[in-house]
Amino acid sequence: MTNVSLFEAQKKALEYYDSIKPTTTVHGFTRYIATNGEQTIIVPEHFQGSGVWIFKCEIRNGATYIELVN
What we know:
It is built from one helix and four strands, in the order αββββ. By secondary structure, it is α+β, with helices and mostly antiparallel strands.
């Protein structure tokens, strides 16, 4: 991992997810987001990468949820 804290990586992933999610979706739109703290990308569900944090982001009942996967 780079010298990025978990909280900084989570914030980066959440900002990216919020920028791509549809505004009218109230449930669903699950995406796996990988970030090294500087770059952020959507990855497949079972992605394994070194030096990155991987988060599962989704909308549940109109609210955004984020969970650390790897």
